[in-house]
């Protein structure tokens, strides 16, 4: 009893440490303090799991402690703790060896978490998902564990074809070598089907029957069987569990599972129970490592993901379209009529049902009246409707008619209607410049998939972002600029030498934004940046406990455990606004680029290009703003004011730099205007120049203002450099004009639906416009908090 009490105290202490700091008010000072101390706190959850799995009884203790804490949270209305507690309960229950039905623990959990269904989003949705899991576990014990392993290990039968693939994308030049090593280790881990089948069968018996039949007896009965026999037994168990989960009565469902397992035990020739308390003991059966694929990723596209289609043989049969390449060398079972039919399918217009599906999932601009208005917002990070004057072209006078614009944030490639059987987790590691690369790759994928669906037709795409401090000192790859040759502020040409090393700096504002929106992301993912690489990447020792089955477990570094925890427990996308820059070059060429974090113009962009040259930058030197060559620019911006009205301003400035950054660095800025940009201009007020020495900017002034639209033009044939998202590979020179705004596309179908409503003319102003804000969906644990 004394040992049990001591364990309960340790579990309670670690649980409190896991939640410590999440319940305070989100002030800027608090956010900074939490970020600094969260390095140690991020290890508390991992330490708690390590402690709990040493003894199967510890899982029940932790579940009870979470329920106790949840009741306190409900009484004190501590909103920030609801999602973490629900997620911790779900992940703990998933790994619980046996939950005795006589304790009524799941029934108590349903009673506790049901109270949060009346709370606002995202708390009610997180608890709703947990309640769905609890209802399944009452009827079919252990089914959550079974489904997860089936999907991650590709063990599904023809009737149950769901899969989950995990892809790790890293640029070797920009992450620590230890991170690369861990990712490669994850991608090499392979569990044999035989051992996975055996452990899943043992897990099913233990989850439903506890210690009635010793796992050693079940293991001995299964060991002589081949993989086909094991697969048949596993398929029978899966059918039993799924049939029980589909039943309405929990008692009948559990009885169905027990009856099915007893029949299976007889066929497996496992000795029957003598009716007395079994000598068997509970064992903790760890989750096998998910199958992972690791790619070196350096380009602004996701073309590397196309190689995964090789693992999906049914891809060519999707939507009734067959690939003629598979029949190219077939016998002459290919007659003229059949060939004509294939050609007709390939080149004819898609049917209305297929067009409707593509319109919903890809935001097809040709869908017109096929789209329907959603009844709920995509995310709580922005209200569904705001009044802005954003449809006016640039430089219209403020006297123009104010139009009513309704925005809906949309990820475009992910939608609630997705019915793909395979989920593709895309995990990207890096700083803000890598987030920009993800944004450009996502935008490129959106355009490709709208024209010809391929990846989105097979996979349900989910994007995960793991922040990493840029390892500039270890950069060994090429950072070659795209576009024209870059000119330094001194006028010297910068080389496009592919052997230049990366020494530029990069922030982690996007990850900090995700952390402010989701405290559990901040605690378990963002805080990785504050831990030394040699700590999170070191190999952990195996759990020493006779009740822990480590026979097929491959111990992983802490980083691998944290990444898998993130992928398995985070499921709600937070929509990060994308921005577009329409650039006009000196030769008249026009191009449109997308960014998610920042756009740097002038001296800042040129300096970043010089830093990217590494040792070669010493030839040019890195000047500060006082030595920079001034640029005469015409700046027109639409300033954001509290009233929501437009405030256009045109001015001619002599500047060294004009920079735009996502205006969400502090919790105080998390309001309905998260799509705004912070415009920072460094203006030269007084310049000293002489015949014998170099010019000098004697007096500088920095101006900051929030805007949603900006145009910067070079006056008197002035050209300038532009850098997107702090990425040295996205620096363009000889730019004469740059138009910046949020990414959105008009949605005329919504107007069509409103015209059908008799009272719409009385509710909505005339000339109302509906737009979909194009956003990058990054998966977090709870999504954006309101």
From TrEMBL:
A Gene Ontology term for the protein's cellular component: phosphatidylinositol 3-kinase complex, class IB
Renumbered residue ranges of the record's region Disordered: 474-493
Alphabetical list of InterPro entries matching this protein: PIK3R5/6
GO biological process: G protein-coupled receptor signaling pathway
Alphabetical list of Pfam families matching this protein: PI3K_1B_p101 (PF10486)
Membrane-topology annotation of the record: Peripheral membrane protein
Single GO term (MF): 1-phosphatidylinositol-3-kinase regulator activity
Broad class of the protein's primary localization: membrane
Alphabetic keyword roster: Cell membrane, Cytoplasm, Membrane, Nucleus
Subcellular location: Cell membrane; Cytoplasm; Nucleus
Name listed for the protein in its UniProt record: Phosphoinositide 3-kinase regulatory subunit 5
Source organism (scientific name): Pogonophryne albipinna
